[in-house]
Amino acid sequence: MKFPRKWLLASSVFTSVVFGAPALAQETTTTTTTTTEEVVTEVVITGSRIKGKEYTSASPVTVITSERSTAAGLISASEILQSTGAAASSGQINNTFTGFVVGGGGGINTVSLRGLGAQRSLVLINGRRMPPAGVGGTVGPVDLNTIPSAFVSRYEILKDGASSIYGSDAVAGVVNVITRANYEGFNLEGTTNITEQGGGETYQLSGMWGKSFDKGHFAVSAEAYEQKALVAGDRDSFACPTDNFYYGDDRADAIDPTTGNYKCYTHGIEGYVGTYLPSDVFGLSFFGSRAISPGSTTNGVPGWAFIPYEARSFNDPRGLSATILSPVKRFTLFAQGEYRPDWLGGAELYSELMYTKREFEQVAWAQFFPYYHEQSSANPFSVGTVAANPILECDTIEEFFGPGTTCNETFAELGYPGLVANPIVLYESQREQDVETYRLLGGVRGDWGKWSYDAYLSHSKSKGDYSQTAIYNDRVDYGTGTNQLTLGLMPGGVCGTGAPAGCVPLDLFNQAALEDGQFSQAVLDYYFTRDAGSTEYTQTIMEASMTGDLFELPAGPLGSAFGISIRKDEIDDTPGPLSIAQNIWGSTTAGVTRGDDTLSEVYGELEAPVFRNLPFIKDFKVNLSARYSNYDSVGSDTTYKVGMNWVVDDTLRIRATHGTSFRAPALYELYLNDQTSFLAQSQVDPCINYGQVGEGGGFVKNEQVRANCAAEGLPEDYAGAGSSAQIFTGGGLDLKPETSEATTFGIVLTPPDTGFKFAIDFWKIKVEDQISSSGAGVVGACYASFDFPTNGFCNLFERSTLDNSITAIDASYRNIPTEEVQGIDYTAAYEKEFNFGTLAIDLEATYTKEYLSQLFPGDVVYDYQGLIGEPEWTGRVQTRFEHKDWTVNYTLNYTGSSSNMDRFGEDGTVGTDIFYAVGATYAAETNEFYTHDISVRYEAKEWSILAGISNFTDEEPPILGNGSSFTRLGNYPLSSQYYEGFLGRQFFLRVSKDF
User: Fold this and answer.
1) 3-state SS of 496-565?
2) Cα 85 from Cα 102, distance rounded (Å)
3) Which of 108, 144, 152, 735 is the most buried (most CB within 10 A)?
4) Which of 463, 467, 133, 514 lies closest to 291 in space, CA to CA?
5) What mean pLDDT is predicted for residues 200-220?
6) Do 141 and 104 meet the contact criterion of CB atoms below 8 Å apart?
7) Nearest to 455 by CA among 549, 560, 565
8) Distance between CA 19 and CA 334 in Å, rounded?
């Protein structure tokens, strides 16, 4: 374990703004001015419900002020939180996940601490739980879009488990959003962030007003935020992603004949027709037929010509409008107030009101590739018309049809009467999500003797509407005369018996459709539509607590906190009618998800000063907490936490915690109605070619898999015949809660009168019985088991009695064994006042030692640490220099190297499935990635201006080869650590005026 040398060298240079200052022994006083940086006296520290005067708790806490994050060019809550040390070591869900299926639906932004998932990271606002928001049946995580960022004073991040303090979901840690207290005056602020190359620009306008009066205070803020879309055409690496294959130092990519450059591989391809042999040898494909001038004739089919791969272009300009970064419009209103009526005897009524509306949309060019039976009247390649396709070499023809077969023989001569045709055309697919979130909270707090009490009631509701472009699946069946699932001929052929009214033959075998994506109006009207659904998520919380000192101990008072809580959650998701009817071609479908759960809890916490003012013990405290939780759905559970805080002297502090946490199943994990999707046989069946021998002479599949596949009666060369397997994902009503243990141990150095602070915290979290959708992995778990076929996973899928293909897989949510992460956090700060100004330097770094996961009992325990998107090292070094009214800020952001090489079969070599680059190599690893941000601020008495550049050296993310097992966004890894690189150099400006 060591810091990368380049990073240490760079961190010693003039660095950046204090963005993630460690929570080290800092005591400050409350102000009521309109300045952006607020400081605090006695507060309830995140990680404890007992009041304290310093951020010196036993648990490691990182504090991020709004002013400092803005100086680094960060505007939204998702940008701020996803780039912190506890989150940046793993990929986060943000606006780049266009078209992906994520919890909470498209457009959601979440935070996942320690890489354990957003569902295991609790988000609070002013110490109280924030509600879920989003669309679809998987609403559960908190959407960071709902945070009123303009009114945020600071973010506090607790970096260990805390279910005994805050309840379920606090497995990996807690994010506590603290809003401004006692704000006075009126402020308008405008911020913009413009990218040098265009696309992805952001604009934010906010206003805040606060006023104190004799018996209380009221403040309100409103903000409007917009981020423009970043589309593929805005960046070369998105406009034309290439394979990036190499033979040594020579590029091995195919050349596009129309441009002379390397071929683009995604976003769109010029339309063409793939033709397939009949179902008895289904799987052997011939590509290359394409619509051309009407006068041509090839293989007996007028108007068609064979164009080999080398002569085809994939440079389709339609793909340039595909969304890379989803555009968003957001409006947020937040108000809070306190009132002390005489009749309450000094107690205070308080309230919070939050309203957020967000609008997202995504555009993609999707492939539409229906199949046409060989006897369909709409198939120009019908019985007896097509000769052997010359894309295959003669020896390949012999391999399939026997010795002596020539390329000039027709399929009829070979005994195959015709071909299944498969035109591939592009259509514009649009998705939209509009979500409104309401939250109303009211409470009372005050003192009763030596005790302080706090009780509140909150109610929230998220209402979301979502829609997508859809193609009627049943109409495709009749319009092609082909059952798209079985590839059988429909009764009566094209538009035959039972066809929906107004049936129009689906003609895609024309130049306008194939090459230009232009469909006739009749086809557009009959086959294309929009499918719209709606989601409501409601949460109601009642909570009451008391804090105070129980009695005096020799070393000081015994602090305590006790409380009760009741929470009810309800979800009601109604997908669009076509989705419910499972009548959308090529898309997942879903049923109605509806359910609720109620939780009752009691909790307590003690903080005991054990020793004070002894040799080597200036102060020694022990913190104990426990919580009993009872869910209607899964029963009861108890969690605990023990913390130790040992102040050796004014320089050294040693702290440690150990505790348990748990996570009850989210509503969608319990009640999600079956959603369907499809995967090819090659992606789900481990028995395909299970007898294959590798280059080294050994079997490709392990002995247990081979034995079980043979016991199934499958031949060693089983080819995986049949159409795609249907995947069903639904809730699991027999789920039990996840349980976990978290341990931290830290050393804090704060030598007096030096301006230097340093903390090192070791952490480890282990989750057992984690709840997950197992996906198609149940098939592999079955055949890898020692108790086949009685293993429970073997009952979760079905094989066809006709061709042995896997037809259906139950991928519902279930408890799976274990997940474990551990690592080290480093935080350091230095501040020094000179005659010419004040210099402050801060460092935050995380080293992830291991990230272990086991999917099924008895399965291999995989270590994902160091994979692309899971770097060992992440960090940030930041400096601020202040001189009178001027402040200069500089930030160095660091993401460590990562690699998929020699992991999960990745060897960086192109296989035989890509014929033009067999044996070529590709990048399956990333180098260290740095970005630099700089800003200058001038602050007058009533106004301030901040200008800066993010990624001012215009760093480009690492480039991966197309063969990598990791998902690419263009040529880059699809992971949030590279977000600044996606955008390139950005210029930001913030103007603030007090009135």
Assistant:
1) CCCCCCCCCCCCCCCHHHHHHCCCCHHHHHHHEEEEEEEEEEEEEEEEEEEEEEEEEECCEEEEEEEEEE
2) 23
3) 108
4) 514
5) 96
6) yes
7) 565
8) 24
Contact between 928 and 4 under an 8 Å Cβ cutoff? The reply is yes
Mean pLDDT of 664-680: 85
Tokens of 128: 């109280």
Please indicate whether residue 279 or residue 873 has the higher confidence score (pLDDT): 873
CA-to-CA distance for 777 and 784, rounded, in angstroms? 11
Domains recognised in the chain with CATH numbers = 5-233+324-364+431-468+532-665+735-776+811-994 (2.40.170.20)
In sequence order, what are the residues at sequence separation of 6 or more whose Cβ sits closer than 8 angstroms to the Cβ of residue 787?
none
Residue 285: CB atoms within 10 A of its CB come to 13
**What is the pLDDT averaged over residues 469-489?**
91
pLDDT in tens, 885-899: 999 999 999 999 999
What span, in angstroms and rounded, lies between the C-alpha atoms of 811 and 856?
13
* pLDDT at res. 833: 93
Q: What's the count of helices (H) and strands (E) in the chain, helices before strands? A: 17, 49
Query: Which pair of structure tokens corresponds to residue 972?
Result: 């880059």
Pairwise CA distance, residues 818 & 766, whole Å: 7
What is the rounded distance in angstroms from the CA atom of residue 767 to the CA atom of residue 819?
5
Higher pLDDT, 91 or 801: 91
Query: Quick one: pLDDT at residue 954?
Result: 97
Angle at 566 between CA 560 and CA 568, to 5 degrees: 150
CB 890 within 8 A of CB 934: yes
Closest CA to 646 of 778, 510, 555: 555
Which residues, at least 6 apart from 322, have a Cβ–Cβ distance to it below 8 Å? 98, 231, 232, 267, 268, 363, 364, 365
State yes or no: pLDDT of 12 exceeds 60: no
Stretch 387-400: mean pLDDT: 42
Dihedrals φ, ψ of 203, to 5°? -140, 135
Between CA 609 and CA 50 the distance in angstroms is 13
Sign of CA dihedral 508, 509, 512, 515: positive
108-122 pLDDT, tens digit each: 999 999 999 999 999
pLDDT of residue 959: 95
Which has the closest alpha carbon to 280: 415, 481, 480?
415
Q: Lowest-confidence range among 18-22, 199-203, 340-344, 722-726?
A: 18-22
SS3 of 600-668: the string is EEEEEEEEEEEEEEECCEEEEEEEEEEEEEEECCCEEEEEEEEEEEEECCCCEEEEEEEEEEEECCCHH
Rounded Cα distance between 103 and 82, Å, is 17
The pTM for the full model equals 0.87
DSSP 120: G
Coil, strand, or helix at residue 489? strand
In this structure, the dihedral spanned by the alpha carbons of residues 972, 978, 979 and 983, taken in order and rounded to 10 degrees, is -60
DSSP assignment of 351-387: EEEEEEEEEEEEEEEEEE---B-TT-TT-SS-TT--B
Smallest Cα–Cα separation from 221: which of 200, 198, 205? Answer: 205
Cα distance between residue 930 and residue 655, in whole Å: 32
Average pLDDT over residues 773-794: 83
For residue 240 the two structure tokens come to: 């034309």
User: What spatial distance separates the first Cα and last Cα of the chain, rounded to whole Å?
Assistant: 52
pLDDT in tens, 683-742: 788 898 888 876 567 787 878 889 999 999 999 888 776 667 888 888 887 888 999 999
Could you identify the residue written with the tokens 């903390």? Answer: 759
Amino acid type, 470 = A
**pLDDT tens for residues 915-928?**
788 889 999 999 99
Q: What is the DSSP string of 401-439?
A: H-TT--TTSBHHHHT----EEEEEEEEEEEEEEEEEEEE
